[in-house]
């Protein structure tokens, strides 16, 4: 790594872990969204605002206001600028003079507008920051999120806890949505960043930073375009050899690329080129937010496996057919079990209204039996011990009346699957569909997250995620053999 | 149509519209699920049960009990049998003697178990019913649902209202799930049936019945296998020429076909053969429950169009890129608008923090403007009047704070889109994502259903549905030209 790059990383470390933050230009019209997002921040928060009409609102939040950055008494590690675009150059100059650790420009209206003035202003701030080696993030972005110290970009984000997942997004919306959806799915963020037009710091800088960050074990990225493709893919290959990196590419289609030009001012490269390059670098390609969330969740919680032979357990005959079709279509195998498994199943499994080849339809033996929960444990054990099976998949609660209408009866079942997840060495996936009751499904999923077993909302998402994981671990395994 | 078929239809009409229903063998262990499902039924309900322990529970429900079907004083139009499989032949004999309109066997344990006794019993009831032309539905199914008269198979199903959507499912779970999910999506059922092992009446009988039923405008089917493929596809072609028929095939894969054998005892034919035959007959192929629900919903609520040029409106820049990629990948076009549209947009659209080529990113002009709602109406009108655009797609409420945290501010927006939906002749689709708040998204979707505009939960489902619809209407259009 070059000397300059090291300096960038050192300075990024100061911006990602600030002890003081200044918000420039927050206002009532935005509901003081930036100052509010910093309420749990564990360091000093300052406001910079010259509009006298805004001062009472800022005072009400208990934040000290200054007329310029330079007036702030101590050092400022991180600045959030939400100012009119014409003011941006002056704020950049102030940041340079104040020697801040980094500045995020929420301000938009630059090259992405394809106007003369926007393009000119973007060039001015890029030149100023570039010459002074100022860590400028954006413009047209929401910047950094470090939950442990309460540095956020929206009030809805969690704070106070450690995490292991890093997220890098060219889009503020996707940075926000990933962290918010992740909160419900047991995905805990180490650090995340939205970087918009990327006029100074680009995706590669953040990838190298989170690649070196010890807290970050997995990295997700939403990218519209990179300035230096060669440097990006060199870094990607290096980081992806040490930790999983997932890439969601915005602007893969011709029409989508037109949209990225209006969004972050970047020209998106061809989707096919990216697809090949991502694969060659050993990163994982995902195509949307759901796939990003599912795959990260599985990397965190599902035990690694290269095998693709799946044992499927469904709660009704109709679901047993559909889950099997879905996993087979995703490229997974649904093999028969060994004879000794079938002998064991024959001792307790009621085939009137059920079946146990593979898939299992367990309605008769689990749901309608007095000792249903212990039967479920036995069925899971058969799957666990069968040498034909690499991964176990269980569907919970689609429609069955006694369970659906009485959440308390669900707890012993959740304990049983949670015990199994702890004692089995095989990857184990749970699917909780929402068809019967969205509210109950949501409650059940939350309980499972508390028990450390996030679930998947339908067969398709579970099957595709398992296949993506198996491919990834297979690739890693082959690499390690070379 | 042959004389025998006409008789079957006439008799099915009696079973689908019964004035009296008898439940044989309902019991405490099942929570008296059948008698409870009939609480809103607008005709006479009888119980047949010989176990004295069950009689107090039945009396408590206010239902008269008899020891045999023959003891019931008047005629019985429809029988639901939930008895041990060994008793099934005697119940069939009783139904024949009582000249009932139809009997559904919830009872399972027949050929699907692949046991000698199960296969033998299935043959016995099939022979008895076949010889006497008894309308036997099942066994191993949940039978008929006619919401208008309160004939249901689960307490969770709606009743009392007319509907236009018929559903035919080999699986009881899928019949139940489709009707329950449909209830939240504005899909109103005319009549539905689950028919299990199909030993007497098969999918074709129900297809012909609902094909002739005037209330039923759209037919959805979940099929594992048919007994007489030639007859089925002949009927399918005929019915599909008059109303949309959607087919979801269970057991498309080799592994899935093994599951259908254990589920309903049928041997599923190759998925590829079905795929070709469905297309040739002019029916619509769907691959899972979500696709079934989405496509039916769109057939009911979205105006027909053969064009594939889409105008996309998203609530943030990041979403505008992703929605565009998604629609383009689904095979739809996202063209530029005409110059006159751009001239009109330039008069009110704020491009600082937004953009309006196609897609539109409307955050600056809608969400952050005082006259946001009227701007939204103007943007929709531009799309409506632009000759380059066939269909309009709008994303609502992903993450934006003022809207997300204050549901009341949503109402004028919902009124605006509802007005647009009524006055525009172009197909219009709404997407309400759940990322920011599942509860708010759910509430918003319910309000939209009340206004007659069901929404889609993500970009993929909306895009794929629109493409499926455009292909269908294009096919119909070509057929009508021949």
Quick rundown:
Two copies of one chain form a homodimer. The first copy, chain A, is of the alpha/beta class. Chain A has three domains: 140 residues, 3-Layer(aba) Sandwich (Rossmann fold), CATH 3.40.50.720; 161 residues, Succinyl-CoA synthetase domains (Rossmann fold, 3-Layer(aba) Sandwich); 179 residues, Succinyl-CoA synthetase domains (Rossmann fold), CATH 3.40.50.
User: Which quaternary structure do these chains form?
Assistant: homodimer
| Protein chain pair with the most extensive contact, residues per chain | A-B, 77 and 77 residues
Q: Which architecture of the largest domain in chain A per CATH?
A: 3-Layer(aba) Sandwich
Largest sheet of chain A: 6 strands, parallel
Instruction: Tell me the radius of gyration of chain A.
Output: 26 Å
**N/C terminus separation of chain A:** 25 Å
Q: What's the number of helices of chain A?
A: 19
Q: Strand order, biggest sheet of chain A? A: 3-2-1-4-5-6
CATH homologous superfamily heading of the largest domain in chain A: Succinyl-CoA synthetase domains
| Strands of chain A, count | 17
Uncertain ranges of chain A: none
Report the principal-axis shape of chain A.
elongated
CATH top level class name of the largest domain in chain A: Alpha Beta
Number of domains of chain A: 3
The mean pLDDT of chain A is: 92
